[in-house]
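Bit of a strange request maybe. I'm writing a small parser for structure token strings and I need a real example to test against, not something I typed by hand. Could someone generate the tokens for this chain?
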Amino acid sequence: MKRLPPLNAVRTFEAAGRHLSFNAAADELAITPSAVSHQIRALEEHLGIKLFSRERRQVRLTEEGQAFLPDVRAGLERIAEATERVTSGAEGPLTMSLAPSFAVRWLMPRLPGFQAAYPEIEVRMISVVDSVDFTVSDVDVAVRFGLGGWPGLTAHRLLSEELVPVCSPALLKGEAKLERPQDLAAFTLLHASSRMGEWRMWLSAAGVTGIDPERGPKFHNVALALTAAESAMGVAIADRGMLAGDIEAGRLVAPIDFELPSESAYYLVYPVANGDRPKIAAFRDWLLEEVRRDPALVEEPG
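Reply from user aminoacidic:
Good idea to test on real output. This should exercise your parser:
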């Protein structure tokens, strides 16, 4: 780095130059006028130039002092702003509002990695289906499912969806086979009330007729429907990528090789003005890197 002058002296110069008075600067900085004079003299010696001309009881900025003052003021303001961002970001927890299925199935297994990397950030999670209103809540970030483009919010696309039927391996131990889309006629369909219509779209895309797409138990959200599927209550429909860990562990299987891409996706969102807050930036960068590294989301070369 280039040679930097003493910060206290620079701060004293800015106050004295703004007031054109050593006495006023002394009052503002809670020091004596002689201390102001000493700081200014030390700064002038450090720079090798005169910053003030002293005329009896009045001081004036020299040409060099007039040229120096605006840049000094701008620099001190940037330091103050950076300090405010750091201190405001360090205060309080990182509160996030998450879609239940995303929170339970995808984020929770990875969250210890974030806490290990940022132990100073306390995480608070709220699992809700409805979108949070940032203007009336203390939520810092949210993960929303939709098409993107929310006014006033920065949105980072995380996970696209490819819908597949999933169920417990225990459900397939009976006589009924589940290998083709039309085999679903012999099984109970499980639904998430917040995502009604997905079975209808999937069956239609698979060319299946004769199955009521709305029959079967309804659950408040996808997370509950998947828990029911794990308990062998029936077959749920969900995103294969989000369930990669459950499928690999054998808790769920995707027995039918037909996927329906969705136009919607999961997005990380937060108010545009808050993107530079350290705790938000840390979580955003970590989360996007986790998405990039997720083997279930990496396209195989074709």
